[in-house]
Amino acid sequence: MDGSPKKMNSLVNMTAGRKKSNENLDWFLSRPSKILVGFPSRPKNLYDSMTPTRTIQSFIDAKKENLSPSEEVWNSLKGFRKWNEPELIGLRNASGYYPDIYFEAGMDETIAKLLAKFQERVVPHKF
Q1: Do 85 and 115 form a contact (C-beta atoms < 8 A)?
Q2: Is 0.70 topped by the overall pTM?
Q3: Are 77 and 103 in contact (CB under 8 A)?
Q4: Burial letters for 74-104: b for 16+ Cβ neighbours within 10 Å, e otherwise?
Q5: Contacts of 3 (CB under 8 A, 6+ apart)
Q6: Is residue 103 in a domain?
Q7: Do residue 61 and residue 17 come from a single domain?
Q8: How far apart are CA 38 and CA 55, in angstroms?
Q9: I need a surface site. Which of 84, 91, 92, 98 has the fewest CB within 10 A?
Q10: pLDDT of 25-37, one tens digit each?
């Protein structure tokens, strides 16, 4: 590089810019993380801990091995009213083989009502 003042100033400005961005990065990294601080090791809401599909599969696996389903499975089953249509159909199908998956009285009627709501959303169409 020739030593002209114009080129030297641009080189100094580029170096200063990098230094400033490094200072910003150092400052950012030195701050405590808000993402990881304060979160419990277990989820607060146990209904969110298992997917509906995994819940049903865990229930079936436990019954096949003549074990009692875990508390996590039972807690997840309690949230069946928030499940989507395929999971509700799977729950209903599983009840044919393992009727004790219905832990509340009238659970089959509740599932039927929820499935009817899904059917109401289907819009007929013509091609």
Answers
A1: yes
A2: no
A3: yes
A4: eebbeebeebeeebbebbbebbeeeeebbee
A5: none
A6: yes
A7: no
A8: 28
A9: 84
A10: 676 666 655 555 4
